[in-house]
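In this section we walk through a basic example: taking a raw amino acid sequence and producing a predicted 3D structure, encoded as discrete structure tokens. The instruction is simple. Fold the sequence below.
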Amino acid sequence: MKGKEETKKPVYFNRELSWIEFNGRVLDEAAQKNVPLLERLKFLSIVSSNFDEFFMVRVAGLKAQTAKNNNEKDVAGMTPAAQMEAVSKRIQELVEIQYSILRDEILPGLAASGVKYVKPAEYTEEQSRFLETFFEQNIFPLLTPVRIDNHDFIPGIINLRLHAVFSLKKTEKTSAESTGNIDEEDDENQIAVVQIPAGLERILELPGEGEGRLFTLLDDAVRIFGGKLFPGFSVEETMLFKITRGADRSVDEDRDSDFIAAMEEVIVSRHSSRPVRLLCSNESSKLLDFIRLHAQLTHQDVYCVDGPLDIAALNGVSKFPGLEELRDVPWKHYPCIDFPADESIWDVIKKNDVLLHVPYQAYDPVIRFITEAADDPDVLAIKITLYRTSKNSPIIKALEKAALSGKHVTVFVELKARFDEEQNINWVRRLTDAGIIVVYGIARLKVHAKVLQIIRKEPDAVRAYAHLSTGNYNDKTATLYGDLSLFTANRELTTDITMFFNMISGCSAILRMSRLIISPVKMKNKLLSLIMREIERTEGGHPGHIIAKMNSLADPDIIDALYKASQAGVKIELNIRGICMLVPGIPGLSENITVVSIIDRYLEHSRILWFENGRQGELYLASADWMPRNLEKRVETMFPVLQENLRKEILKILKLYFSDNTKAHVLESSGYWHRKTRKPGEKYVRAQETLQQKEEKRYAIMEKESRTDFKVRRN
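The resulting token sequence is shown next.
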């Protein structure tokens, strides 16, 4: 075995720190001066949103472990307390970079383009008068100040909602009636909190002559004019802040009879759960300490920034006209030419499997698939899994229509899809009202698979058609996420899918399937066996090769198997968007493994797996990442692509990601990700742009052929 004498003990990157570095790569994209200004701003706001969720879930979990004095080390050798310290240090560094990009590049760039953010200290008299009037008429009636007593926990502070806090000093004797909720008997110095209204426009345009478009933020107006809420008091100091609360509480899986009620309790609890982070402006150290102590947070939990707390609010400047040059030139979502409008969708799928690659191709075929099924009198049944879907989903509407027309419709809705629980509960009620059979939970497992099956009565037989995907049934994210899916009438696959739906409905034992691979029962063992086969092929004289693309790699058993494969001489190429706990490039352990990551216009979401298998390559698509939760605690699907032309097409897509020298980052054994750059004379390659251009050319050829065919028929 190659490098046997140098074999080293497996090592791993820490999961949390690896995820943070993903946001570092997103931040690096915001720092690229060749990216349009508003797109850079979008990347900054994505970092903020990602960190919000990270603190609610991952940091909340670490804090809970630390509070229990849990000193158990993770596979990377770090205790929860050590992880907390490292997490805080690295995020502080990234937040400082984030705000320096905003202050020094984005806001000056917007100003140079005619859209200027005016800070309160820069208001002219005219602007101050305008804002004061606006505040009194439109903001003041919505505000409710809440006094904080010295020993009280902060009341009514909603998770992730912006607040202003005021330090007040009594200026004159007033009656209890005139001071509202500030009691005359209390001390002359008071502290009050005001929630920033969530329903108002955050961008407030200001008057100003000859200076382009000027704006300030709603938060600034509340902070500057909020003193009007406190007659008889002067504002000594003020500060903006946002509390992040833990959202790691799990639903009680044993409450079968009222599972939805249990899920709703979890959602409500997030607004009052334990604080895990304080994000605040930097005007007042006194108020910062006051809020921090009342929230029972440490200095490690505080992130004090010089700039708007809610960077995403700045995206509202896109409403101003004339800023098109500050955005990416739109990329068209092209129709899938394999689904001609004048041909039955059933006939198309019956002849061949069809691949759909969103967002380069439009999501329309999926919507067409299910809407035509709803309208088709020969369709007998529809079954689908829903994990996340859009607010006004056309898929939901089609399912309702199908049920109301008498078709047998079964929908598996995952209520535990974090932060989509409330919407999914609403879907359950709406679908149930339409007469649909709704299954909404498997105890202690999330249904993360993306499967749709349609059963249709045809002259020769009852036939099953299916759609299997790496991404959710969400028409909105299908314009933003890169995903692959397969339409098929292959009998082996559709028979397996029938068994799959019976299994997750709880009406069937786990059965042996011929093509479909599912977790948590088969997938992990299958992956380990595929990796072991590459080792055996290599030792037998046929060099092994594994190419895999996914969102995250964190399963120690899979990582150990990849290390063994590398030691055996198997070439391993990994494209990992987010978490990667595997350490590449270590002599004697992982020198045959390379890891790259693409951060570009679209979110990379597809999971593609290629195993060389002695030149008899096998290619799979999957809903699952290589993480313990996906392989052991979720219902997931992995399925082979059997049609040769589609296998070749997907393999080309997969290999393209490793030739990108524009938007790719390469992982080093130190844990540092460096941006891949072109060598002198090297051809420019940007994977997403290449995929877009390929689809544009395919569609242009189709249009040209259609016009030629029309002329021939007309003549």
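Looking at the output, two observations stand out. The radius of gyration is 28 Å. Residues 80-112 form the longest helix (33 residues). In the next section we compare this with other chains.
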